[in-house]
Amino acid sequence: MSEKLILGPLLSVEGDNKYVVCFLSKTDLNFSIEFNNTIVKADKLTKLNNGYFYRAEYIIKSSKNPRTVKYKIINEKGILQDIHKRESWEFYIPGKDEKVKFAYASCNGFSSPDLLAKINEPYKLWEDIISIHQKEAFSVLIMGGDQVYADELWSKVDELEKWSKLKMEAKIKRKATKGMIKHLNEFYEKLYIRKWSDKNMSLALSTIPTVMMWDDHDIFDGWGSYPKEIQESDVYKNIFEIAKKYFEIFQIRSIKNTTLINKDRIHYSFSLKFRNFHILALDNRTQRSIQQVMSNTQWNDINAYLDTHILNDNVLVLSAVPVVYRDFSCTENLVDFTSWQEELTDDLKDHWRAKDHQGERMRLIMRLFMNIKKRKSAKNNTRTVILSGDVHVGSLGVINDHLNNDKIHQVVSSGVVHTPPSYIEWLGITAITNDENEFLNEDKTIETSILKPIGSAKYLRVRNFVTLNEGTDEKLWINWVCDSEDKPCYALN
């Protein structure tokens, strides 16, 4: 009888021709992965509560022709199966000059058990991802945040539930106990194993190369947007370190990931070139506070990268929270002077348009326009597209530099599993916010707008994911695949 993996395989990509397979096995044996006719040894990276985590790297030569690679995991006892009794998998490698097809998704879970109970098919869109992939293969699946929802830790970890009932002063003083740390480790590890074991999602993660960047729910709701006193408490610090440990293992696929911009892992921003695209993922959680989204160290790393790379390529920038979205500033100003401040601050302070983040948001926008100008000087007609999620609705935005005739588009896809706001909730959101065009400089040459996708309302209040591919018309086509009959799309020049 074949041994079954506890989790995996998890397929990822770290460059044009470098693929990585990771898995969690209950046994400590010598594992190898057979890629077509090439056998690669799997390295044991760490021991977890439920088993041993392994990683294997497969580097393949460039080819003009597309290829399909079949692989299986073997040890001295035979071939391993996943929990669904699959014992071989395959993935697609596009040809050297092929127009590649991407998928993008975020918000892969539920923030409360009530939402899960109301959904008939929680993972239906993962079935759609597989269905599309089997007809016309995705080259890369980009996941932009909230790959798991850890919010239930407050009720699942007994010590945390007791701690959460203390008065604020007592919470800040209380130290994390050994029992709390042990149970937090158990919670996060089991969370990944449980949530990523769905039949269709597990097939997608093993057959479509992925790259992932975290957001708040991978830690817990609103991480980084709480008052300094509680954010720096011993309990919060321990929660973060443990969440980071499992993010690094399961999403980053270990410290051996060669796409990380900062090799000391002060932050997890990463970038990789894949064909004629650069994927630049911003880590907006590791160093986040109410006053900042990214530290100067991370900014310096990103600036240095932009100064030395991305001359000949399109750029996909991952920012989990949308840079172009509805304006909450009036509501934030009101809340700052009411008794609701403590209760609502993490939700309002978490947006790029929160007053404490507006300067940094402008810095990001201007830095991306500088990179566009540099690419234009090299006579390259390429695009910059921000990919975002977080808000549980889909949308399309644009930042126009009218003076230089440059633009940055933003695609929001959210969520692939999480439900959208109800009609009443959406009425409430629209009542206290606005989406009027915004001017970012005094001569009004830099302007942000929310656009209306073709074939839908301005906001997609439905579960969705996105496909991106360059058409024969040389446009970049954005298609939202929705949990409804709608088929929104948009073509970027």
Automatic annotation (TrEMBL):
InterPro entries: Metallo-depent_PP-like, PhoD-like_MPP, PhoD-like_sf, PhoD_2-like. CDD domains: MPP_PhoD. Gene3D superfamilies: PhoD-like phosphatase. This is Alkaline phosphatase family protein. Coiled coil: none annotated. GO terms for cellular component: membrane. Residues 89-336, 343-422 form the PhoD-like phosphatase domain.
